[in-house]
Fold this protein.
Amino acid sequence: MLIPRSLGPNGLRQPVTTMGCLLRTHHAYYLRAPPAPYTPPTTGILARLPTSWVPYAELLRIDKPTGTYYLFLPCLFSTLLAAPLSTPSTPPLTVLGTSALFLAGAFIMRGAGCAINDLWDRNLDPRVRRTRHRPVARGAVTPFQALTFVGANLLAGLAVLLQFPPVCLLYGVPSLLLVATYPLAKRVTYYPQFVLGLTFSWGALMGFPALGIDFLGAAPAAQALLGVDAASFLGLGTGVAIDPATTAAATTANNANPLAAAALLYSSNVAWTVLYDMIYAHMDLRDDAKAGIKSIALAHASPAKSKRVLTLLAGVQVTLLAGAGVAAGAGPAFFVGSCGGAALTLGWMIRRVRLDSVRDCWWWFVNGCWITGGVIASGLGADYGLQYLEAQKAHQANRKEHGDDDTKANNQ
């Protein structure tokens, strides 16, 4: 049954005003009857778990893996962009193993981030229809238990990080500050999505040192802090070492600039994160306004204004992505597949998404991950594959040439 909300003295529904904009009160999501009390899951992966495990699985968002994929994709992008820069070019099995470790790390750290978010928002979540049944908000997990859970996840994340070259600790650990403070941003600014972008895009930096390209020259600091020869100590899970010669070679391969490539790729991912989370935030417009939760969707509440901002973000993302390819010396497969594909899919999504429909926003948030993220990864993968094959052919030709020279020398 539908019920009226926010009735005024004349018996008519009153709009909610925020940032000078009127929120549409005929939004179907907000006119439903109050949500039913929490009921344990009866379908899906949560229903198969022991009852005592369910609240912690909900903290992990194990039944909603899209956030894990969004956290993983920047790691994959940077791994594929960095792979052709090493000398010799990184073998496919190393790329695959590195990507698998990043996927495990994304799953763990996304769980830690969600638990931290739920701790900060335990008094706000009950006011928002979509989040009111989260485990901390409904009391199924105490703050102390949630904090303990965060600690366990961070230890597991550290175990994954230690599989990479030790210098990756210096690249990865600073992101924890952003993970811990993002939930505070929505209390003080209408643009917390930019803080989320800085957090979720951190993996765009990590693929380079994971494959031995220390673009900040952090190995000596890692050696001093960790007491190991970080310049040659292998990553336990990847077998990759940080070698200054590798980084130097990467700067000359295809006239590449690894530092610029990493910075531009990171910035591109920040724009992408703001874009897709702006669509996501439209699902909670009215509840967020009533609860005092700020978001970029509230700052640009009308669909027309929001779509103009989304279009601007898409343009920034694709431009920065192309810049990262130029800095990395990428080939046509990247510019056509990744950049062209991103431009087309983002344009399609922005044109088609109905921002006043919760169901439509959710569909594009979930599927946009694979639509846009998939074409970017495919272009990067194709470019890496072509460059790897070309490098292998050049290596074989070089060996054959030197072999012929050795044969001639022996005959003489």
